[in-house]
Write a structure and sequence with these properties.
Length: about 120
């Protein structure tokens, strides 16, 4: 089970850290990702981290501003978001993917991030 938290209402230029706490199996068993969905738009992946935590991936729209990381001791994945823009406004979801799987099988409930200009 994944529990995302940390969303809020911010202004452009602010920073925010989202957390995704996992229960049950350790996050080291999964590749993890952060996704977002804005109103009227399709869900998009914004960041991902490998099982080992050594490889990360970012969407071009957030590269250089967002950082994904994990803390195996806390069984939690984070998304540090800096220099937030109004276009970052969305519901953010964390997800877990089994090794070798093509897609993400497990999803958190989402946390709202709203950035005003």
């Amino acid at each position: 089970q994944l529990q995302a938290s940390g969303g809020g209402l911010l202004q452009a230029g602010d920073s925010l850290r989202l957390s995704c706490a996992a229960s049950g199996r350790p996050i080291a068993d999964y590749a993890m990702g952060w996704f977002r969905q804005a109103p009227g738009r399709e869900r998009e992946r914004v960041a991902a981290i490998s099982l080992s935590g050594t490889t990360t991936w970012y969407a071009q729209s957030v590269k250089g501003r967002f950082t994904i990381s994990n803390d195996n001791a806390k069984n939690t994945v984070y998304l540090q978001m800096n220099i937030l823009k109004p276009e970052d406004t969305a519901i953010y979801y964390c997800a877990a993917r089994e090794p070798g799987s093509a897609g993400y099988e497990y999803w958190g409930q989402g946390t709202q991030v709203t950035v005003s200009s």
